């Protein structure tokens, strides 16, 4: 097998228990050289709310969200946003290399096995972005791991999030509305909302708004990077 990012060969060494217990093998699509450029967020003195690294207590962005919501569930993410992650998303989203959706399959699958939710949904692309790319990057990133439900619709913004600075992101108006399927869910169910990158939290908190205002209180969020 070859690394989906750089093309180097990958050796998936089987563990003894995987052989004798007939455990399902979770393939790795990223080589050790590429993996060495990733910075796992776990135990990085993370913000207590959004998981950003090197934060004492709660970061300034999350203090804004706490003033609005009083109590919010902790966001979780796997990797720190660095140059490797930046280049990855440039190839994946801007240049449309959809095969890269599987690069972090093993990492996300491992997280999903340790974190269970009643309902898992995701941040959808707007129709214009999906037509432009030919695929929905967040859906492709998670669809083979979670049983996803499409519960939100996103309207076109005047400017893509990636082109906005921090202040513009925070001032972005609500871009989501709920689909009718949301009314068929029990308000007691736990909700997980998936995105690809967490920056200020504005996008995920607007999605959080939709569920909060619909009566859901157990709402969590997750992204590949923060």
From TrEMBL:
The answer to whether keyword RNA-binding applies is: no
Kindly state which keywords UniProt assigns to this record, in alphabetical order. Answer: Glycosyltransferase, Transferase
Highest rank taxon of the organism? Bacteria
Q: Which organism is it from?
A: Companilactobacillus nuruki
Among its keywords, does the record have Cytoplasm?
Answer: no
Q: Which family does it belong to?
A: Belongs to the ComF/GntX family.
What are the recorded GO MF terms, alphabetically? Answer: glycosyltransferase activity
Residue spans making up a coiled coil are: none
Q: What is the lineage of its organism?
A: Bacteria, Bacillati, Bacillota, Bacilli, Lactobacillales
What is the official name of this protein in its record? Amidophosphoribosyltransferase
